[in-house]
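pls ignore typos typing on phone
glutamic acid + seq
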Amino acid sequence: MTAEQKNTPTVRVRTRFAPSPTGFIHLGNIRSALYPWAFARATGGDFILRIEDTDVERSTQAAVDVILESMHWLGMDPDEGPFYQMQRMERYKEVLAQLQAAGHVYPCYTSVAELDALRERQMLAKEKPRYDGTWRPEDGKTLPPVPAGVQPVLRFKNPQGGVVAWDDKVKGRIEIRNDELDDLVIARPDGTPTYNFCVVVDDIDMQITHVIRGDDHVNNTPRQINIFNALGQEPPVYAHLPTVLNELGEKMSKRNGAKPVTQYRDEGYLPDAMVNYLARLGWSHGDDEIFSREQFLQWFNLDHLGRSAAQFDEAKLRWVNAQHLKAMADEALAALVAPLLEKRGIGAAELADGRLPRICALFKDRCDTTVALADWALVFYGDAVAPAQEDREKHVTAAIVPALDALADALQDCAWDKASIAGALKEVLAAQGLKMPQLAMPVRVLAAGTPHTPSVDAVLELLGREKVTARLRNR
Ligand code: GLU
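k done
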């Protein structure tokens, strides 16, 4: 058996990402999509997107849009969905009725005020607050008289005694005593089903084999497993991912400054670099830090998920992005930079003159985002550059003006390639008795707007004769 066959489960893997669209999705959230997506791709399975929009007050279409846009940008499109929980209410009610008919559900008339009082008593007695089972039907038990005019909630009859256990792919074996779980409300007085119940119905209907989600859901899992069992279904495999912390060590959240995923796109990050960086936030493949999407999907399995919280580090993300940017083919990079330049007013015809891939080749080593690369490229397409006054004063001195004029003249007529440009520079240096930096620095400042550029002949060649001669004379 090959290693690959060993890793391939016999049942087709089906994973899901189930975000609640209650805020703009950030990197911590999207990492919970990355692993189920990667696991489905790595095993030839299916990845399903389910929007958990039952919190009607807080869910917004704008948040859904950012989820879809972010996933699409990162190349994590689902095979099925998006499915919306709000559109599945009838289905939940149908399964609720089945569960009720099978005796797993009972009406509870305890009022909110009574529950509050109960909780207070339990807290005072230093007990864990929980429903006391007043309305739970048992053989030989007489239930209280049903109060008039009260719409009951429906509670799930949690098994008594024994344990709920699962082998979590991240946390190892977890066992919870049923006695620690009270009877969960699974439908509100108006009949709408509650969260834990909907999740189970969805995971059954969508035939999810592996639930890979944030560990803030660990407490829900035993309850969900009991509902699976009551419905006569096998629960999926669970993997609960540790939290992603922000740079201050707090749980990453919008409230404490996390940016929406799409902002990284706008700041010039590459999807493959984001996938690489996010993958390492909670998973490892030996010491590999930089890898392609293909390598990641080849290597990914659930056995190397980290057990401790990962901390976001923007400087590292930039570094990872820079490595991917450097490794990218110039043509591909140019295709990403061109729209950024168009947005900044450069016409499509000019952008198609063949220079852009070469500009990318010349500058990609010194840029960590495509936006930084576009800033450089703009020097080659815009009409003028605006050097800082300080650079002008330092480098474009009166003493160098004759050499600049001589160079502009020489460049007016020479052949336009790197070697001829270098030749023209050398001739002027020799004629004026100057050293290269004395001329190269003011040339850079005037032609490119900054003294910090790669080799001056390469820069001038890409700028083109017209721009170079005009800028050298524009002092
Ligand atoms: N909707 C939940 C959340 O956004 C995820 C639930 C789940 O994955 O089971 O945290």
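The chain has a mean pLDDT of 95. The chain has 21 helices and twelve strands. more later
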